[in-house]
Please model this.
Amino acid sequence: MKKIMAFIMLALSSFGFSQTTDKPQEFKPKTAKKLAKEFLKTNHIPGMAISVSRHGKLIWSKGFGYARLKPKKRVKPKKTIFRIASISKSITAVTLVKLADDKVIDLDHSIYEYLPDYPKKTYDFTVRQLGGNIAGIRHYKNDSEYALNKKMSITDGLSLFKDDPLLFEPGTQFNYSSPGYVLLSEIIQKTSNIPYTTLVTDSIFRPLGMTHSMVDGSDIKIPNKSQFYSSSVMNGPVVAKTVANGYKAASGGFLSTSEDIVKFANEIINPKIVSQQAVSEIITSQKLNNGYKTGYGIGFSVEKSKNGTPKYYHTGGGIGASSILLIYPNEELVITVLTNLTGVNMKEFGNQLESYFMD
Model:
């Protein structure tokens, strides 16, 4: 009898051990949690949300630190609303190709076909070139323009750069341009005859169940919106200056949660509201006239993962916001990180998370 009981105890012990070791996803978030805490501390970030999905389902979603320091309010990835900064460009890209799906816009037509009154430049350029940052439109002129606190419509916002000359002949160079995406949103709304933010809400956010996503508005009270912070050498994080992001919604003006951005990213892996061809248009690297690949499609950087598989991503940097979205279609893996601090280098941290979740 004693031998039988000993055998049973040994069997149960072995079963318990195998149950623990056969679930690597239970271990990986613990490791990633330690990494995230170190990243938060090293960069003096008040608050951060990380959400990770595999095969379309959340496998880890965690808040770190505080959405507000005074009074203290903890980050909750399902509810805390951050500025997503230039991840907004990825949303603009999907909105654009949805119109291409519907034959409303042709990516290879001149922008003047859609905006005939836009000031003529030395060279013509296409919608695709504009979205790929190879049209020659400049980036922000200075920090004052980047942090502008002037409430304007998208059409009004064109006045900041529309009379400036192109930096180069379209198709000959790559120049990252947020103003270029303001111009893109003007094309989108004038062609569809629907206000840009209304179109994004109705055609992207609602169908994908992104119920905590919206355009930023400094004068609008939004429940669960994070406070936004900038770094201060002497005093640590301080409340960031007020900025008006409404006119540049397409380039960096949307608010969202990390879990909402995961929903958006999974549309790139398994599209439901746009065609597979539409997705291909935005995740294929554009080429310069000499054949050089820029590593940027429309609204997405295009690279290889550490395993040599496709990787689509976008970082974001805004007033009171640093963010990154990473998409690995072969692995059906999505990683999103949103923070409420200006000027944090997100790319290396994204690479570290990639290493943990792809091993």
Q: What stands out?
A: The chain is about 35% helix and 20% strand. The radius of gyration is 22 Å. The first strand starts at residue 47 and ends at 54. Confidence is low (pLDDT under 50) at residues 1-27.
